[in-house]
Write a structure and sequence with these properties.
Blueprint (H helix, E strand, L loop, with lengths): L1 E8 L13 E2 L2 E2 H15 L4 E8 L2 H9 L7 E4 L11 H11 L8 E5 L8 H13 L4 E7 L9 E4 L2 E4 L15 E10 L1 H5 L11 E5 L11 H17 L1 H12 L6
Length: 257
């Protein structure tokens, strides 16, 4: 397959300042993403991959250029109109895709979120496998939801609070299975990215791949980062894919001479 991996990271961040520049256990978050791409290529040498980063952060660009895990990364400058807090990320991915060297040649565009660093090669392979099964517009990673809108999630209606999805279920086990998007991996159909996107991605043809639930998947606060640092040594003991990723990063010499 011809794969374009996209990495998107804005400068700053209102919720967690400069979160895309943070380190997890002494390793820049973006290096986790680059490392899993490297390991994917190593395990799938028949695939042709390209990597593009879309950002308006000079600090992030310098950090990426400093490493030599992945070479020849395309740098796409984030347009001002795509740098706002409420801009859907899919529009940034679409802009990245359209500005890359050979957009007509990609079989899939895979976006990996910087602040969801705990993923392994198998997770990416699972997204690609699911993508090939059906004519999806997008396949994204999920985890089992800890709460169910049919049973124990509520919203305000008028003066009172009610279940989000009205039902007569008396036990969570009776309700349909529901999942949470974990903001880690999104695999896009290039044809989808060439059209005008006017709705959220969940309004299109979607497929899912279930990942292990690492509790804190999307780092959006200092507390998330601290908890993730405590969890990593525990998680790598029971997840061979994460162990492979962390072993690679441990041996990697950060920064070019």
């Amino acid at each position: 397959m011809n794969i374009l991996f996209t990495i998107c990271g804005r400068a700053g961040s209102k919720g967690f300042k400069n979160k895309n520049l943070k380190e997890l256990n002494g390793v820049p978050l973006v290096f986790y993403t680059l490392a899993v791409i490297f390991l994917y290529q190593e395990g799938n040498p028949e695939d042709k991959i390209e990597v593009a980063i879309n950002t308006d952060s000079h600090e992030l660009i310098n950090l990426v250029l400093k490493q030599d895990i992945i070479n020849n990364i395309q740098i796409i400058e984030r347009q001002k109109e795509l740098a706002g807090d409420t801009v859907p990320k899919v529009l940034v991915i679409q802009d990245t895709f359209m500005k890359c060297k050979q957009p007509d040649n990609y079989d899939i565009v895979i976006d990996l979120d910087i602040t969801s660093p705990l993923r392994c090669v198998q997770d990416i392979e699972d997204v690609i496998k699911e993508f090939k099964k059906n004519k999806y517009d997008v396949v994204f990673s999920v985890v089992k939801a800890r709460r169910s809108p049919y049973f124990n999630m509520v919203e305000k209606r008028g003066e009172y609070y009610r279940k989000i999805c009205q039902s007569s279920y008396t036990a969570r086990q009776q309700a349909p299975k529901v999942y949470e998007l974990n903001a880690s991996i999104y695999g896009y159909n290039p044809e989808f990215l060439t059209d005008k996107i006017e709705k959220t991605i969940l309004d299109y043809r979607c497929g899912i791949v279930e990942m292990n639930d690492y509790l804190v998947l999307d780092i959006d606060s200092e507390e998330d980062l601290e908890l993730m640092e405590e969890l990593v040594p525990i998680l790598i003991k029971r997840d061979q894919g994460l162990k492979e990723l962390l072993s690679f990063l441990k041996k990697y010499r950060y920064g070019k001479n």
